[in-house]
Amino acid sequence: MIERLQRLFKHRWMEDAGRVLPADALQRLQARVTASEQQHSGEIRICVEAGLPNSYLLRPDTTAALLRQRALAQFGRLRVWDTEHNNGVLIYLCLAERAIELVADRGVDRVVPAEQWQGVVQQLATALRAGQYEQGLAQSIDAVCAVLTQHFALLPGQHNPNELPDAPALS
């Protein structure tokens, strides 16, 4: 019980995501996602949360399980699953835990092993520890783009309709 209360306080007093990623950084990340999606048929979304909602924090689950549950919930809320080719990817950050989750839709999971995403997560974790949020997310977008381009490249003259917003979601 004490662990859950400590976790609750940690998440309630975390600085907000907008302070870590100011408006100009968000615009650059959005532009990077937009440029990426000109190369493949996938969709990339970024979600950055300062902390988990209270409804998660009071659950008895481990922090790792809660973070995965929240990333999956955001995957659904942001409709990353709702693309024509089922090839959306969510990059999820929880600042209070300095945690990263990468959630790929079923079309991507069929061709990309989960282990391949570990390098992306590790690279982003290294950047976050150094306080380089924008640079780390930019590198992650590029890495996800490379994977999506490898498996879902656009053919010459083919157009990728933008199915999801490119702007990072902050909360």
UniProtKB/TrEMBL annotation:
Domain TPM: start-end pairs: 16-146
Source superkingdom: Bacteria
Coiled coil: none
Pfam families assigned to the protein according to its UniProt record, in alphabetical order: TPM_phosphatase (PF04536)
PANTHER family: BLL7265 PROTEIN, UPF0603 PROTEIN YGCG
Protein name as catalogued: Membrane protein
Organism expressing this protein natively: Rhodoferax saidenbachensis
